[in-house]
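Supplementary Text 2. Reproducibility record for the structural model of the 425-residue chain.

All settings were left at their defaults, and a single model was retained for analysis rather than an ensemble. We include the record here because the model underlies the residue-level annotations in Supplementary Table 4.
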Amino acid sequence: MVTSNEKVLAFFLAVLLSLSATALASCAQPSPNAASSSGSSDAQEASVGERGEGMPAGSGSNSEATVGARARDEALSVSDLPSDTAASAGDLTDNPASSGNNGMGDTQPMQMAPLAYPTGWLAAPIDDIPAGVPVGIVDLPGFSIAAHRGGVEVAADDPSLASDDHSGTAVEGEAAILYGGAVRRVPADYLLVNLPDVLSQAVYDVVYSYASTSRCAGEVIPGVTGEQLPGYVAGAQQSDYLGGPQFVVPCAYRTAMKAQWVCDDLSARGYRLLVFDAYRPMTAQYYLSDCFVAAYQSNAVMQAGMGWSLTWYVANGPSGHNFGTDLDVGVCDAEGTPLPMPSQFDALDESGHLTSYQLNAGDITPAAYRPEVAGNAACLALHEAFRSAGFSELASEWWHFGDGEAEGIMRSIVRPGGLDFVASL
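Retained model, structure tokens:
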């Protein structure tokens, strides 16, 4: 006979058995909030994000995870995030590139751009170095030469310079150049230097390299006006030293030094030098002369408007340009905007004259300037700066300046005629 106490005990045992069965069934089912061993952790990240909503910014890993979850929920890119959280958000991404490896655990070494130096060219061969071939200028008396990497000057204390930098290796009267992977010393007077590399404060527009502006009495010179002249590389070239496109403007070493003084003088007056031409290959010189003579002989407007004889405008033989010692220039304001001049550059007629009458270079004084020149403050400043630096003027061209000292030196090096190489970087 079952007593009442036994009935109560049986009842509790049944309840316990029922509860145990329910618990076992529950353990056999995966929790909706638990990530499976082979699935994603999105639910966990969302949960972390929900818990992080009430946490102060920057309170630790949970706040970083919150940023990551929010970025996914709101379809934000890392660049859309505030700068102080973008790095944390980036840390949460599985991007092999951002971690510096290839996705397989191998770290990729960072490729460093090679050192670059100003470009130069020899006017005559020295040993095994040909004339007209680009060389790196690592040291040059009178100029502050610094190695560049990717167009940016490399600091003198940069560890990467320890084995590659060659500055400070030149001596008086000599330049140190890099050719064939070795540093060589050469007479500085043999060098033409690329002006944009050493005179960065100047502005450059070598129109002969893409579209000549030459005209006579307003008339087009067939084969010249609007054309690239032979002997010039086409337009601006990519410069490893400057880190972008720039015109190629070879100039004799001593002339470049004087041009540096001109730039400093103009800068003090609030101007910048504008360079149209320096070294001109003989190929271009003869071509320009031949085209000009042919046009003049068949054009009555040119004949009436030229004023002086042909040779006042275009030499039919070597001139200072062909040795890199003459400069054709203008003036810009401090922002680099060209300023109005007495005429357009290369107006081969009376409008481009510096003086009112024919004068030899040594006889030119400001009193002889045409009113259009004397009344142009920027043009006057240009001539004052060049005369102070030791350049001569040309009566028929307000834009032309010659360096007779450097020309004499270059003529003694380059024989019998002018230089005729296509300059490239």
